[in-house]
Amino acid sequence: MSNAWQQSKLPFPPGVFPALVTPFDQDEGVDEDAFRSLIRHVIDHVDGLVPCGTTGEFPYLSVEEQKRLVEVAVEEAQGKPVIAGTGAAATRQVVVLAENAKEAGASACLVVTPYFLHPSDKGIYQHFYELSRAVDIPIILYNIPQVVDAYLPRTVVEDLADVDNIVALKDSSGNLTYTMEVLEMVQGRIEVLIGHDEVVLPALAGGCTGMILASANVFPEVWQRVFQAVQEGDLATAREWQMKVQKLARIFSRHGGGVAIKAALNMMGVEVGRPRRPLKPTGGALIHETRAEIQLELERLGKVQGTRDKGLGTRDKGLGTRGALEERFEDVGLTGEVIRDAGLRVGTGSAGEEPEWVQLDLVAGPKAGPLGDAYAYQLTYPLRRREALTAILEPNLTVRPPTLILPTLEQKNLRQANMIYGPTQAAVAKAIVDALERGVIPQAAMDEEVMIVLATVDPKALDRHALYQNVYTAMEKAIRQAYGHRRQ
Fold first, then answer.
1. CATH code of the domain occupying 2-301
2. What is the rounded average pLDDT of the residues 333-360?
3. What is the pLDDT of residues 211-269, one digit of tens each?
4. Of the ranges 8-17, 51-60, 98-107, 281-290, which one carries the lowest mean pLDDT score?
């Protein structure tokens, strides 16, 4: 890589750069001590720093605050480059911010496409060209249409690539078609850095030479592994590490940027406070269910200890493993004695590894009888936070025999409910249909019988695909047990 950088206009080799959040205290003042702590948290794992960008809430910062944040970043960077966000809507203001950044010791400035009152393509070119003539500091163009509501035109980037102190483009669009077209147009005259967390690997593989990411506040070491693996041509390893954080990358990219990052850092004990108004930490850009998903993903990465949504723990503590199988259906009004006297079929099955481990307990039998009564009662008087749902293959297409799925654990939030009213529901239905086709369930049962399934799903389950597969396997086992040992 060193030989390539002898030909590059960028004054330093890129790598992993966190788009730093700006910590605020309870009065919404900049918390300088917390900012220093954040930098010390990431500095050993990154190649430089980027304060005052989008993740840093730059539109809500004063000129003086931005300059001081850059100064602090330079002081704490341990000699690593600092790319100062100097975005603004007006050219004159960007010039002031860029001059301040140079004075504070920044290595380069990051300048977003002019926003709000959108200039023409010629106006955008003139904006960056005049900036390049007014300040003696390397300039990185910044494309982020999600908030600017416009792309930095590719043809403008192509023309600006010939300007001496315009050295790179940060592309946060997530649109790989745009990214690849820019790479083809600039032909190495400027570097292209990826700024969208969800597409780091394909962007690096396509020719991007570094990254500026919000999520590098949270797991910069993962991005270093991805970056180094791509440099070594080991795409399999890079893919493995990208997938470990893909869900968090998606949440951070799509749920408020700095809002979600601050939530994660605070969960990790890296105190960065709340966002500045009008941004809200909850109830707006980041709902409670999304916060729960962030928490669980951080637990999975080992970033936080489990403080939310206790899992099932060891399987012998699972609700479905308690007592004889016939005794497990008392919640639906079926005692073991009733099940035995009515000759109802029962079966159980479990599958998977925590936290996607599941157990299903099945009772099946005639509609005309105690099971049919229990089925109707659950539909009429559902248990709070354990509401029963019918097994459906797709909207408006229920399976036969008619089947109710009853969670054994309370659904405490929307994320947990989605795992029951989603992959669990679909997998149970598919297992029933397949059992009918194979003759495990007799055809006569379609019209004459009903089923109730008690579903024990770990509250910490996150992987919908794994959960679907485990529920299907467990249901298949339960059906075979129930219908393979029919009572006469």
1. 3.20.20.70
2. 92
3. 999 999 999 999 999 999 999 999 999 999 999 999 999 999 988 778 999 999 999 99
4. 281-290
Q: Print burial letters for 379-411: b (CB count within 10 Å at least 16), e (below 16).
A: eeeeeeebbbbebbeeeeeebbbbbbbbbbbeb
Q: List active site positions.
A: 142, 170
Q: Is the peptide bond before 278 cis (omega within 30 degrees of 0)?
A: yes
Residue range(s) in the chain whose domain bears CATH number 3.30.230.60:
315-484
What are the phi and psi torsion angles at 345 (to 5°)?
-90, 140
* Beta-bridge partner residues of 143: 171
Q: Given 3.30.230.60, 3.30.70.360, 3.40.50.720, 3.30.70.100, which CATH number is that of 315-484?
A: 3.30.230.60
Residues of the chain with CATH 3.20.20.70: 2-301
Other beta carbons within 10 angstroms of residue 318's beta carbon come to: 18
pLDDT digit string (tens) for 384-433?
778 888 888 877 778 899 999 999 988 777 777 777 778 999 999 999 99
**HSE (side-chain half, CA atoms, 13 Å) at 273:** 22
d(CA 81, CA 100): 16
